[in-house]
Amino acid sequence: MPASDAEAFNSDRTSENRLLLSLKSVSKTYITGDVSVPVLRDVDLEIYPGEFLVIVGPSGSGKSTLLNIVGGIDVPSSGDVYFYSQNLSQFTEMELTRYRRKHIGFVFQFYNLVPTLTARENVIVSADISESPMSPDKALELVGLEHRTDHFPSQLSGGEQQRVAIARALVKNPELLLCDEPTGALDLNTGRMILEVLGNLNRELGMTVVIITHNSAIGEMAERIIRIGSGTIAETKVNSHPVAANQVTW
Ligand code: ADP
Ligand code: MG
User: Fold this and answer.
1) Among all ligands shown, which has an atom nearest to the Cα of 59?
2) Which residue ranges does the record assign to the ABC transporter domain (predicted)?
């Protein structure tokens, strides 16, 4: 990458007060009985408002742990997590719940839809617990599912179910859309469609999107790629020419 591109990105994005979220020296060790497993070691991470960030790393490198800490599902063993100027590490359980509800949308590999609810009802459940939701039909339209709203998950393809899951996350108007292996269960073409939906939400709504994946090809469509290995950040790269979702291949 030419130095001038990195400089342009940096001058535009790096002023501290523009950070949406940052991790400062975050470590995480899981302790089960007398076995302790260090998973993250001294991780510093910055997420800028409106960016499309991909974090890649092999299976077991600590990606999901990292995303869960960012999303307030898990807490670090040491270090701090700042959401704007608020330190999540000092939040009570209730404040963390409110943080997740109000600011975070989660998309998982296996959709996690309620099987007995229709697509629209799955999205409504999420809208009902959020403080400033968009209309559920609007969210379903944004993912291109306006014709499938009354179908149950079992009547939808994997890609369609993932789009419902994205609509369910999106309906909350979250500050951050966190996606854990969102294409992991999908074939190439369906995976590309999901990436296209995520890319459109970023471009058209200005939504901040973070994808974590073991699939480094997905990094090609990111503005910034962070490589994680054995619980530490091995590399951060600014991508001056992100490719369109339909050009990503694996
Ligand atoms: P990735 O998403 O990159 O595959 P994870 O963050 O899921 O990696 O896991 C990293 C390591 O942490 C793995 O070795 C995993 O077994 C371990 N781990 C994750 N969650 C827990 C937990 N709740 N208790 C104990 N070990 C865990
Ligand atoms: Mg994982």
Assistant:
1) 1
2) 21-247
